Amino acid sequence: MGHQFGDRPMFIGGEFTGASSKDWITSVNPATEEEIGRVPAGTADDVNRAVTAAEKAQAGWNAKSIWERAGLLKKVAAGFRARAQEILQMEATDTGNTIAKLRADVEIAAGYLEYFAGLASEMKGETMPATPKGVHFTLREPFGVVARIVPFNHPFMFAGAHLAAPLQAGNTVVIKTPETSALSGHLLAQVCAEILPPGVVNIVSGYGLPVGDTLVRHPKIRRIGFTGSVATGLAIQRAAAEVSVKHVTLELGGKNPLIVFPDADVEKAVDAAVAGMNFSWAGQSCGSTSRLLVHESLYDRAVELTRTKVAALKLGDPLDPTSEMGPVNSISHYKRVMSFIGKGKAEGGKLLTGGGRPKGDMFKKGFWIEPTVFADMTPDMTVAREEIFGPVMSIGKFKTVDEAVNIANATEYGLTTGIFTNDITLALSTAKRIETGVVAINGSAMHHIGLPFGGARNSGLGGEECLDELLSYTQVKSVHVLM
Ligand code: NAD
After folding, report:
1. HSE on the CB side for 60, CA within 13 Å?
2. How far is the CA of 252 from the centre of ligand 1 (A)?
3. pLDDT tens-digit series, residues 258-313
4. Degrees to nearest 5, angle at CA 67 with 65 and 73
5. Which of 135, 206, 303, 434 sits at a 20 to 30 Å CA gap from 424?
6. Best mutation site among 232, 234, 251, 451 for ligand 1 pocket (most ligand atoms within 8 Å of CB)
């Protein structure tokens, strides 16, 4: 084809394969709009083949001891690390995420595999003396074949990390990669092909309809782990419920507030908010601190600091380690983010910096958007309510603690919150009143493997990155032995 990365087939039953339709999806470098490779546009038939292959492999996989499975997961982790450079070059070119920070993605995926391998002996049941002579206990058993559906912002990291818990629990897996930026799924498959028995991991590429939807509705899929938008999460719950009872966990979007109380160090708070925006991937992060809420006494200073800091971000080639921000992921996402910026302007947001395409020859092609900050945000504005999933931050002010809490809770989301204050009582009482799954005091949201990451309200269902994630890939059976 002459594309930089060529054709990258799917992985079904240990074989690399095209789609039954023979159709392909072309990946575009978002920084240049160059075509860089292709993945098959999977079909319902391909999904059925993948689930059948996974089902065939599951009994053998589950027959291995927990230690054998753990050992193989650790080998997959080592395989990721051995190919880190190749994975990162492809991922940065395909996603537009800047390489300096993206380096962590391979390490995170490998770290998850090792963490869940380390939890092998924690898949414990319970016992209870329910009758005087009997023995009563629970077993934790795998579901069989599980589906994991992955978004475009960190495709390799999510696909790699999301193998770990289901596999350790004895399930086999079908992964659905995103429509855009799916090339690295093929490298993941190559590592799995060298280490795991055929069918234990299967990777199907293609569109949400038909691939994601067929997977969700497949009668052999009883457990679905989804990471993506609220709208798709709801569609998955509906589709699953239409066909049978399925276990669905959801990691969805966020509109995350960072609250700065009057006693806070405003410079540190603004640093945390700008870092938490994840401009390194153009703000395309579920945890982005897209709403900075500042007490009126610090507001003007916070506005000025944020403007200066965001305006100074260096946009550039995602492969250049000095670049601090790249383009957004795709043309459709570019249009979506630009339309939010238009709404911000139209609804009275005060544009502090950014708001358009950056100037300069290298930004003439590609999906480039300036890092953008709106001040004087009020809770009714679209940019204050809806997840933009782009390089757009808004700043608003409050007078009282109640007002701050009400604004923070005024969206449908509930993923993360940051609170800046040195008053421990204020910090903890506010943390308890905010309806999000993660709260950071004097910081912005972070992931610490071992502690749950997950959303409240429409941000999700089921914490991940912890023991609960492993257990959520098992089902419990009570066994009563009467004597
Ligand atoms: P998306 O919901 O559009 O797509 C996610 C995946 O779902 C893709 O693979 C897509 O093909 C698939 N899909 C689409 N329609 C489907 C259907 N009907 N049935 C089954 N699968 C279907 O999300 P996106 O645009 O790729 O990613 C951005 C979103 O993901 C944002 O909302 C972001 O906040 C969220 N996200 C959340 C987390 C988290 O941990 N909470 C992490 C990363 C991203």
Report:
1. 11
2. 7
3. 999 999 999 999 999 999 999 999 999 999 999 999 999 999 999 999 999 999 99
4. 110
5. 303
6. 232
